[in-house]
């Protein structure tokens, strides 16, 4: 079931204020309806004493009504926005320090930009409409009752089926909106598929065929959706129908009473034209909150779905990094890494790390079959994954929340999965914007020719929207970034994977040069050439140990 | 507003008849709602007058009360019809819009299409199409129905209550709400574009942070990056708030217009009744109609608030389509017995001017199977792109069936030559739909024969035969299976020249040999050139050509 939204007391008060304002705005209609009724009734018997007064009352009540309802809308909207902002920030606070999260980046981005905003209309529309439904129809019913029990009875017959219909309409409306979301989503997915396949379709000379297939597919989706909507819309039509029947019955009853053809249903035995018109004017407003609630129902359904998604996301048990990922003064002293009986929890599995002792200028290769936990071990050494047992100490202090940032300030990582940020190359290589000369680091990483071949050199934008570089080129660039950072510990995950031997040899040579310049080098690899180039090899056993 | 006009016309043409029916139903709802309130008001006031005059017995109660009942039921029915028809219409219109988008994208160069496969460009297009969701439903149809309702109300009240009340109501409503909505639309343009941009920036930044979070954390930049994202988030929120303020103001002003118009009807009615020009019941119609007409203007503000977003989305979608229409080449008469001749061909990666490999020369006769060997990253795929006419080479000459490649019209070229690139895409849908991308009429026999060629009959039987449904982008098949299905599509094209980029990637050795043998058997006269890196491929070829790395010259540094 969906979680409740949590509002702080101040926000609760604001929401209560918005509800009160919206209800007050609705009830101001009583004054407007009375003005109209008295004026028109006056036309029948020679005129009211002060028509200007009544017109003025009508206009003032109407203006106040507009102002109150705008004020209510504003408070509710701002509240919705606060909930959206807070939820977004919480999700990012959770996801950002979890590099091993099971949620994909695209999923989280879709939540932040598309889904979480759906929480706002739940507050700004649905909750306000719900509060109005609980008060306004009852008050109007009592007012009508004070004038005519028969008219009230008509509303009572058509109205209190309301909870029943609300449930009915609610269920159907939820279905309808869910189906419609599915349909819009499904059409978009088909479109995405066809766009993604355009290079293939071009090679198959199949543009026309692809568009025909798309049209057929989308048309069948439309027919299925319409079949659902035909039923779903019926239920809300029932609400409309009852509102219409209520209106018609009240109009006919009041008309016949005024003509003297009906002589029951009022407290005094007769009804004045003013009372008749007044009652008639209240009927649409009696049903209006209900219609608004039905219209806002899909806001609630959508918000519930988002809350479910968020709850599932919060169920991901991947641990966060040690420390805050901030920039602090690096830990002092020559490199000293000790790993003892360390274990890391990865999913439901405990991965045992080998005991390691490593000093300055030394190099180490972690090897073992896929899934043995090589990347996990590298993450643990960089404080990106906390241990479930055992300990790692660095420079003589435990690698914990207090020391992780200072420890990482000495580390540079070359990740296995290459991600080129969508930025200019010099900003990627020099993320802190020191402005220092990159030439030396590029040459040490054997990456000078990579930059030279780029259309705008160091100003080239790489990544999604920019120029592409091959896997080997990207590795050399990231290695250059590692060397440029001045870090004296270089951690590289499978730096030679998917590369031909020539390119791999250049990477290995660059790592060797870094080591001879004093850096401590740790790699995870199953490339025999790279392993041979390291001082020491530690083998991780398979997943079963 | 021209782009929106274009898009509206495009969507309208998707089903003009359905559009008019939807508009007619929307009109019926408004007209019946207005008439219901007007008639009820008249009926009660007239009944009150008759009651006071003591002539209640003579009053014709039948027709007005029947009218009230008819309008009440009719309005509910019309509303149902309106909702169904406009939704149906909108779905049709959106389908045609998406088709138009697809057709425009087809004109883009191959590099741009490949870049679209993942990421921002695709998101942008989907967001733009979605932005136009409400164009018909919330803007065009309500405006048409609202204006027609006003015309009807004007005529009716003019006839019943005279020009003064009728014109005051129409002028008050049309000018008042017109001005309010116009101002709202104008002032919402910039913020709604800004809100959309801020939303896209936020998405981009969030994806950037999450994909690169390992780097960001190790570099100690996480707090800084989070602050930047919070700023982007605050900007998106503030743009939304700005829009909402405009919306609140518009709603407030529209309510005031309704109140003032009704007040005017009250005041004018008061004067007219006093002067004795019309009776009380007729004057009451004016008041009740004035109240009912609120329904014609209040719902418009949502559509108008999105006008800016719709406009810029429409402009982007149309602009995407107007670029790079290739000039049509005149038809040619190729001599397909002559195969493919390549002389001193060099190619560069997209966006570069440096050759990736040494000049390549080869001749491919019908029935030849030639392997292009060489380490990865030496431009084999780039060479195949150029040979398939997808990109222009840096230098050298390619002659296909006796005619230079650049002289081939696209359609004829695709009928003669097919390339199966390293990365292929399937579409969600049935196996048959995927195979039918290759040929206009696909018989079951041909489909199964092509599947047989790539040893896929068992796999396809497992997923439910030709009508078995594949998930998004063909999910449900393994990488190797998806690849073989892509090969089957190529076989169905029956090309004269077939270019394959590492065709058996992801297949075990025995299967790789079976698939290659199947291809050869299905296309005995086809000249096959494949980028190969494994023994199963090179041993199958009758000839192997090595692609050598282009020596980078120091002049570029």
From TrEMBL, chain A:
Pfam families xrefs: ABC_membrane, ABC_tran
Nucleotide-binding among keywords: yes
Signal sequence annotation: none
Recorded topology in the membrane: Multi-pass membrane protein
Domain named ABC transmembrane type-1: residues: 20-302
Domain of life the protein comes from: Bacteria
InterPro entries from the UniProt entry: AAA+_ATPase (IPR003593), ABC1_TM_dom (IPR011527), ABC1_TM_sf (IPR036640), ABC_transporter-like_ATP-bd (IPR003439), ABC_transporter-like_CS (IPR017871), P-loop_NTPase (IPR027417), Type_1_exporter (IPR039421)
Chief place where the protein resides: membrane
Protein known as: ATP-binding cassette domain-containing protein
Phylogenetic placement of the source organism: Bacteria, Pseudomonadati, Pseudomonadota, Alphaproteobacteria, Rhodobacterales
SMART domains for this protein: AAA
PANTHER family hit by this protein: ATP-BINDING CASSETTE SUB-FAMILY B, GLUTATHIONE_L-CYSTEINE TRANSPORT SYSTEM ATP-BINDING_PERMEASE PROTEIN CYDD
Gene Ontology annotations for the cellular component aspect, listed alphabetically: plasma membrane
This protein's UniProt keywords: ATP-binding, Membrane, Nucleotide-binding, Transmembrane, Transmembrane helix
UniProtKB/TrEMBL annotation, chain B:
Superkingdom: Bacteria
Bilayer disposition of the protein: Multi-pass membrane protein
Annotated ranges, domain ABC transmembrane type-1: 22-309
Cell compartment(s), UniProt: Cell membrane
ABC transporter domain location: 340-557
Pfam families tied to this protein: ABC_tran (PF00005)
PROSITE patterns: ABC_TM1F (PS50929), ABC_TRANSPORTER_1 (PS00211), ABC_TRANSPORTER_2 (PS50893)
This protein's UniProt keywords: ATP-binding, Membrane, Nucleotide-binding, Transmembrane, Transmembrane helix
Transmembrane parts of this sequence: 20-37, 43-62, 135-159, 165-182, 251-272, 278-300
Keyword Transcription attributed: no
UniProt protein name: ATP-binding cassette domain-containing protein
Organism: Meridianimarinicoccus aquatilis
């Amino acid at each position: 079931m969906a979680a409740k939204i949590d509002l702080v007391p101040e926000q609760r008060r604001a929401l209560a204020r918005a509800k009160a304002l919206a209800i007050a705005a609705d009830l101001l209609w009583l004054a407007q309806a009375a003005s109209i009724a008295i004026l028109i009734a006056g036309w029948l018997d020679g005129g009211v004493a002060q028509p200007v007064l009544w017109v003025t009352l009508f206009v003032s009540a109407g203006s106040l009504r507009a102002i109150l309802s705008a004020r209510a809308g504003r408070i509710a909207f701002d509240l919705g926005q606060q909930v959206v902002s807070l939820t977004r920030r919480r999700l990012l606070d959770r996801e950002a320090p979890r590099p091993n999260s099971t949620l994909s980046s695209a999923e989280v981005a879709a939540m932040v930009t598309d889904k979480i905003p759906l929480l706002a209309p739940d507050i700004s529309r649905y909750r306000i409409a719900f509060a109005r439904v609980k008060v306004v129809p009852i008050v109007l019913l009592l007012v009508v009752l004070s004038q005519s029990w028969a008219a009230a009875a008509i509303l009572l017959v058509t109205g209190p089926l309301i909870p029943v219909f609300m449930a009915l309409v609610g269920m159907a409306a939820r279905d309808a909106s869910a189906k419609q979301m599915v349909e819009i989503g499904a059409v978009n997915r088909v479109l995405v598929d066809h766009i993604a396949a355009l290079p293939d379709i071009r090679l198959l000379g199949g543009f026309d065929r692809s568009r025909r297939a798309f049209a057929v597919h989308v048309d069948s989706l439309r027919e299925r959706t319409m079949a659902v909507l035909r039923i779903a819309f019926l239920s809300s039509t029932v609400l409309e129908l009852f509102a219409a029947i209520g209106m018609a019955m009240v109009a006919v009853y009041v008309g016949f009473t005024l003509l003297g053809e009906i002589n029951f249903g009022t407290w005094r035995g007769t009804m004045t034209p003013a009372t008749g018109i007044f009652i008639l004017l209240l009927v649409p407003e009696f049903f209006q909150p209900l219609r608004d609630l039905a219209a806002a129902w899909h806001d609630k359904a959508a918000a519930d779905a988002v809350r479910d998604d968020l709850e599932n996301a919060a169920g991901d048990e991947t641990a966060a990094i040690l420390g805050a990922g901030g920039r602090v003064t690096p830990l002092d002293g020559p490199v000293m890494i000790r790993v003892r009986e360390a274990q890391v929890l990865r999913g439901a599995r405990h991965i045992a790390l080998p005991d390691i002792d490593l000093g300055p200028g030394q190099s180490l290769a972690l090897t073992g079959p896929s899934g043995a936990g090589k990347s996990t071990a590298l993450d643990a050494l960089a404080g990106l994954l906390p241990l479930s047992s055992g300990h790692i100490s660095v420079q003589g202090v435990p690698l914990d929340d207090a020391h992780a940032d200072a420890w990482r300030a000495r580390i540079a990582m070359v990740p296995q999965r290459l991600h080129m940020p969508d930025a200019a190359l010099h900003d990627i290589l020099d993320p802190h914007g020191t402005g220092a000369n990159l030439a030396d680091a590029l040459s040490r990483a054997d990456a000078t020719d990579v930059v030279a071949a780029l259309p705008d050199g160091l100003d080239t934008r790489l990544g999604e929207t920019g120029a592409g570089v091959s896997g080997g080129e990207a590795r050399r660039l990231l290695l250059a970034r590692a060397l440029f950072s001045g870090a004296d510990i270089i951690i590289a995950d499978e730096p030679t994977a998917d590369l031909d031997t020539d390119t791999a040899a250049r990477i290995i040579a660059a790592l060797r040069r870094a080591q001879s310049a004093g850096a401590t080098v740790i790699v995870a690899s199953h490339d025999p050439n790279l392993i041979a180039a390291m001082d020491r090899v530690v083998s991780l056993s398979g997943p079963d140990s | 507003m021209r782009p929106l006009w274009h898009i509206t016309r495009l969507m309208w043409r998707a089903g003009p008849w359905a559009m008019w029916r939807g508009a007619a139903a929307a009109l019926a709802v408004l007209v019946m709602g207005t008439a219901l309130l007007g008639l009820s008001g008249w009926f009660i006031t007239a009944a009150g007058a008759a009651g006071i005059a003591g002539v209640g017995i003579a009053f014709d109660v039948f027709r007005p009360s029947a009218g009230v009942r008819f309008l009440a039921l009719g309005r509910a029915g019309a509303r149902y019809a309106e909702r169904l028809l406009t939704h149906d219409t909108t779905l049709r219109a959106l389908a045609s819009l998406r088709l138009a988008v697809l057709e425009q994208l087809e004109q883009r160069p191959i590099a741009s299409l490949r870049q679209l496969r993942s990421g921002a460009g695709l998101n942008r297009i989907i967001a733009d199409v979605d932005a136009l969701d409400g164009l018909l439903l919330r803007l065009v149809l309500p405006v048409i129905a609202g204006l027609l309702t006003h015309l009807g109300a004007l005529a009716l009240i003019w006839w019943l209550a005279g020009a003064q009340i009728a014109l005051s109501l129409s002028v008050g409503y049309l000018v008042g709400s017109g001005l309010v909505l116009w101002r709202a639309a104008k002032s919402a343009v910039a913020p709604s574009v800004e809100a959309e941009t801020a939303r896209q920036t936020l998405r981009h930044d969030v994806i950037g942070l999450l994909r690169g979070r390992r780097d960001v954390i190790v570099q100690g930049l996480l707090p800084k990056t989070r602050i930047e994202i919070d700023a982007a988030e605050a900007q998106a929120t503030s743009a939304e708030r700005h829009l909402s303020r405009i919306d609140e103001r518009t709603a407030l002003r529209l309510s005031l217009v309704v109140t003032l118009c009704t007040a005017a009807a009250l005041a004018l009615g008061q004067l007219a009744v006093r002067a004795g020009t019309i009776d009380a019941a007729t004057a009451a119609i004016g008041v009740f109609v004035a109240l009912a007409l609120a329904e014609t203007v209040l719902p418009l503000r949502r559509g108008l608030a999105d006008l800016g977003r719709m406009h810029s989305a429409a402009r982007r979608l149309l602009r995407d389509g107007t670029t790079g229409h290739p000039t049509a080449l005149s038809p040619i008469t190729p001599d397909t017995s002559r195969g493919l001749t390549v002389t001193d061909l060099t190619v560069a990666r997209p966006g570069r001017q440096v050759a990736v490999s040494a000049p390549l020369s080869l001749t491919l006769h019908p029935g030849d199977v030639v392997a292009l060997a060489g380490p990865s990253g030496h431009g084999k795929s780039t060479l195949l792109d150029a040979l398939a006419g997808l990109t222009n080479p840096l230098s050298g000459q390619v002659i296909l069936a006796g005619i230079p490649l650049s002289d081939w019209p696209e359609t004829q070229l695709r009928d003669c030559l097919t390339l199966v690139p390293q990365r292929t895409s399937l579409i969600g849908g049935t196996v048959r739909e995927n195979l039918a991308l290759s040929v206009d009429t696909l018989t079951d026999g041909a489909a199964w024969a092509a599947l047989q060629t790539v040893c896929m009959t068992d796999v396809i039987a497992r997923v439910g035969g030709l009508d078995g449904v594949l998930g998004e982008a063909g999910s449900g098949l393994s990488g190797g299976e998806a690849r073989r299905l892509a090969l089957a599509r190529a076989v169905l094209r029956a090309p004269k020249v077939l270019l394959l980029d590492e065709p058996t990637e992801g297949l075990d050795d025995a299967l790789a040999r079976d698939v290659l043998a199947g291809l050869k058997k299905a296309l005995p006269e086809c000249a096959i050139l494949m980028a190969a890196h494994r023994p199963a491929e090179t041993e199958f070829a009758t000839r192997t050509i090595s692609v050598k790395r282009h020596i980078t010259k120091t002049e570029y540094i």
